[in-house]
Amino acid sequence: MVGGGAGSFIGAVHRMAANLDGEIELACGCFSASYENSLATGRRLFLPDSRIYASYRDMIAQEALLAEGDRMDFVAIVTPNHVHFDPAMQALDKGFHVVLDKPMTFSLDEAWQLQEKVQQTGLLLALTHTYTGYPMVKEARFRVRRGDIGKIRRIYVEYPQGWLAENVSESDNKQAGWRVDPKRSGKAGSMGDIGTHCFNLIDYITGLRAVDMCAELNAFVEGRLLDDDGAALIRYEGGAKAMLAASQVAVGEENNLSIRVYGEKGGLEWRQEEPNTLLLKWNDKPTEALRTSHGYLSAAAKHNTRTPGGHPEGYIEAFANIYRNFALTLQCRLAGETPPPEYLDFPTANDGLKGMQFIETIVAASSGDKKWTSIINR
Amino acid sequence: MVGGGAGSFIGAVHRMAANLDGEIELACGCFSASYENSLATGRRLFLPDSRIYASYRDMIAQEALLAEGDRMDFVAIVTPNHVHFDPAMQALDKGFHVVLDKPMTFSLDEAWQLQEKVQQTGLLLALTHTYTGYPMVKEARFRVRRGDIGKIRRIYVEYPQGWLAENVSESDNKQAGWRVDPKRSGKAGSMGDIGTHCFNLIDYITGLRAVDMCAELNAFVEGRLLDDDGAALIRYEGGAKAMLAASQVAVGEENNLSIRVYGEKGGLEWRQEEPNTLLLKWNDKPTEALRTSHGYLSAAAKHNTRTPGGHPEGYIEAFANIYRNFALTLQCRLAGETPPPEYLDFPTANDGLKGMQFIETIVAASSGDKKWTSIINR
Amino acid sequence: MVGGGAGSFIGAVHRMAANLDGEIELACGCFSASYENSLATGRRLFLPDSRIYASYRDMIAQEALLAEGDRMDFVAIVTPNHVHFDPAMQALDKGFHVVLDKPMTFSLDEAWQLQEKVQQTGLLLALTHTYTGYPMVKEARFRVRRGDIGKIRRIYVEYPQGWLAENVSESDNKQAGWRVDPKRSGKAGSMGDIGTHCFNLIDYITGLRAVDMCAELNAFVEGRLLDDDGAALIRYEGGAKAMLAASQVAVGEENNLSIRVYGEKGGLEWRQEEPNTLLLKWNDKPTEALRTSHGYLSAAAKHNTRTPGGHPEGYIEAFANIYRNFALTLQCRLAGETPPPEYLDFPTANDGLKGMQFIETIVAASSGDKKWTSIINR
Amino acid sequence: MVGGGAGSFIGAVHRMAANLDGEIELACGCFSASYENSLATGRRLFLPDSRIYASYRDMIAQEALLAEGDRMDFVAIVTPNHVHFDPAMQALDKGFHVVLDKPMTFSLDEAWQLQEKVQQTGLLLALTHTYTGYPMVKEARFRVRRGDIGKIRRIYVEYPQGWLAENVSESDNKQAGWRVDPKRSGKAGSMGDIGTHCFNLIDYITGLRAVDMCAELNAFVEGRLLDDDGAALIRYEGGAKAMLAASQVAVGEENNLSIRVYGEKGGLEWRQEEPNTLLLKWNDKPTEALRTSHGYLSAAAKHNTRTPGGHPEGYIEAFANIYRNFALTLQCRLAGETPPPEYLDFPTANDGLKGMQFIETIVAASSGDKKWTSIINR
Known about the structure:
By secondary structure, chain A is an alpha+beta fold. Chain A contains twelve helices and twelve strands.
């Protein structure tokens, strides 16, 4: 693991997600730029000192020298955005598979390079777009792709949060610190952090290709250098229209991500804060509330569920679904088997690239007087 | 009453709303362009034939000849949009107050004339922007205006419906017929019918002045001449940003109007389909669910409530609040008294004019390549 | 109208419910034991002094002397429980139909006499068990009676309120005053006031006959002479079991009446505070949320709905459904026509009698050491 | 681990819960009465064959012979009820701590013996009453114990499920099989399986001592030998009254466990299917929705939460909280430290004993004609 030392939020989540199913074991790590922090973290995680490294470059180099079976199987990179590209490239170069936090890279240019590297090496890269790990999101995808709601017309996706409504100093909140800093976060603030999840969710569920967008990004908090709020109208191939909103100044909101998709025949609605319910809506019959773990669900939803209905599964389980599918795919590879489609169901470098295109485009769209900006490819 | 014959939806609602509190009695009417329909409707409503008229012009002229006390006190106009202006002008000319359905007129030009006529005559005009009649909307206004949530930054307002998702012929649905016909509905479809409610709700609650907007209107159903869906970004004086969405093709949605307003200190949320709850949201304390009829509410909310807490009040009561406040104001006038502020709390010609400016602007904003269009004044 | 003077809650609700549809007009009244209050109330309601009476006996006697067409058509009795029986008997004796608030009488004995009087006279008596007036309760009845959920096994019905959690003096709250006074309320407090609604709701929806019950009533507030809380297990013919709970000391609850019925094939759930939704539950398919006013509903539900879907209808509309059906039945009678079943769908003296049997039985069941007490018939 | 082979539900949950935080590692197991199943399961879990045992007696005996540090630290017993007592006694006799599924034993007599053994040995026994592991249940306990809602009067607790609404053969559903079999489940069916959770939840949150109860148990499904549904009225020391309902034939319900507690000053409500919200209710101010992970929560709630607000935590996390607190307590013990109170916050043999008393009492209470049955102690 690269990153995830004391004070990190997402590092601990990665470890719980990896632990949950007993398929993955922490082998080594460089948890912080500070070796002290790294060492303390590693020891707390029961690692021997020999597998706790002072730098990720050391770690990758040293592990590569170990015998197969002894060395780590893959690297999980859970650092701020500006430290995604280099460790990922290093790892791939040395033949390690990668799990990487989103957004994939600091810049679109890095994203292209990384995606190409993944293709060249044939190694696996899983990107933790967590929300697509929820079983009911997979059910939504299944239903939309099967045509249950007909040709898609209108999409609403939103992600309001309130935690950055005030000026937070880095000493108070390590999470906030790097996210509002253009040098570590990249071109976008809220749009890189949570807007990308919105865009990815549309992509995952509908498979539609975005054409162009009209957007306005805002920095409401005084002195903030990156957007902490924004909204966009997005036009999709085939005529579907999406409205995307993300905010980190929506006081009182936690992680109120939701998506609603309306087709010619029906509609569907999913909300992250009550993730085990998927609503299907119709004009001529009652709304149906589909619930995790029922017999009437798709194989994809069932494969990603761990308990019988009515035992709420949450964020960590969704996260763990990405790890588990990645691990199952990896096991197939190691065993020389072809992984079935449900194992391959985790976000990849292609999704990461689309996310970086989204960030690049929405920032450009926000700045000019032109109403519509085409999705920036490269 | 002008309009509201057999097959009308809103006419019956107007009558129930007017009946509810026993302050208003139906005196006469011209309920349809067809005298036969009008006569049948009037008789069913226990009117004598002498007060059932063949045209609204007749009605207004004849009633004006009756003695004070015998003649009607005001005219309620509940016809399609293209028959708002003329009867309203006629009524005002003859000294009758007016209750008028929204949007106020067919065109912005008519709106200006009507608003000026109201000012000249000093007569009352109430516009039935129903949703501002709900007690918890009034509470939202009270709290925002008092500064509870601080300076406003971000507003989300939306009104998804599904009933026009398919092509509906007029013979099947009288309501649908005129709404999708540019000759009777005006420049806009969904935006005139329900988008105006969204815009009005922001205005009523926040009092902010819209500056300009960026919009995209869609006609998803084949052959439809007016928008049946649309979205807009609106910039307000002082820096607040709103996202407005209205759709009549959101399959499975009924009247899912909602508004969320986020200020520097707090947020609030109200949904029309569960109208007796107003959520107040904070970053540092639990979300509060305010409920109709409680002691902790404002005088404005209480004045517009009829039953103790837990007895749900709905759409008809909200509608009746407009009628009741209008009637109470009228009674004060007739008694030579100054109406207290809570009586004056009903939408007027000024609100109608703003609604027509909204329609004019959003249609213009949708058509061009320019990102931002200033609110069209005249 | 008998009762409903200044300070009354339910009198005003009766008037709004009667007004709503324009089918009923207030003709006369004795609104209070105080003639002054009565006169003031009547005048505010636009009655001439000649039709405002000093006592209900006067009113009934005087109105009976008026010519048909001039005199009132029926009497609405909205007084506390101890003043139900006498005015109702007087009215029936003089040939007037009656609308009566629940519980029907002060004692079971009175209930028997009144029910017999209704049968003898052939006159109409409508009892305002409001909650059966909701369209989705009618839908529940329709579905259960049609067998959609199979043979009934388990019923949960509850009505928690919080408003009597503290000792309230009559001067502070006129509603509370008589309800906690055995001389005016009868044998039961909470069970007469709201427990009867629970029992009636089971009866209305399922049609099952109660056999016996086991109960415990509590008076939590110090010095209270009647129950302010209670719970019962009820056994029904055919083996269904109900759990009934009512409380007026459940702090923070408003009128949280709900019923859940589970049969061999499915379950249903309805909650009064969100009355326009009826949930149907299944083991092998998604929960369905039926909503007021949709095409898929029964004729009974539709007949009792006034607006299209998504316009919330509430308590007053439910109340008005009793009045409207009563009035429609009365109109048929006056016109010599047979009323269709949907007009006859309002609570009658038979329901009132069952309610008084419930009160008698639950009080008896609560006091002894015996586990089960048969429903007391007479 | 004892039990948890192929086809087990709760065994896998135990393993995920133990894995989650990386504090516990599976060391050995006897996963099934069939050695084949056991071996297959163990191998799938990456255990060496040497640590996969043919019987739990073998396992306990063999592991006891291993050196400290090599041998297992504790035994998790996840078998049906009739195989709880013996392995637990064996383990304690050999000095192993125990994690045990609920209900603690097959009979009350066994429960006494086991509880005494725990006391004698001074070893730890954690009982997986999962629902008390939820952070918002801990918050409820904290608030009630601090007196926020005042002296408790009325409690409603319920646990409706629908999965046993039909006759299920063991071959179809291994979970159902033993639960409806008196030889493996014990005296009670639904009451042992889920009723105990209800009783435990009251106990955990309020600390009140049950005095006596009145109950009716039902076996609705033809041929069923144990209760599949039941209801009870429970009287608590100090005058509080509880209504407890559990059903496994409530068609369409999943695990709809909920508890509502009303005191003299306020009320609270928690529902397992949306576990991250705790409602606090008041008569004179708005209902407050407390949410997992916020700064305003108690230390107990925070200690048992893993992610920031709005990332739903669910059933596995609640389960893992029991394992984690057990493991943290164990680590303190091993390190010779006194565990802080939040580590000791997991259900113990005392709770297990109370659960068995509940089962014994409710079955007795259901069978006689006597209204009230005192809690059976021994």
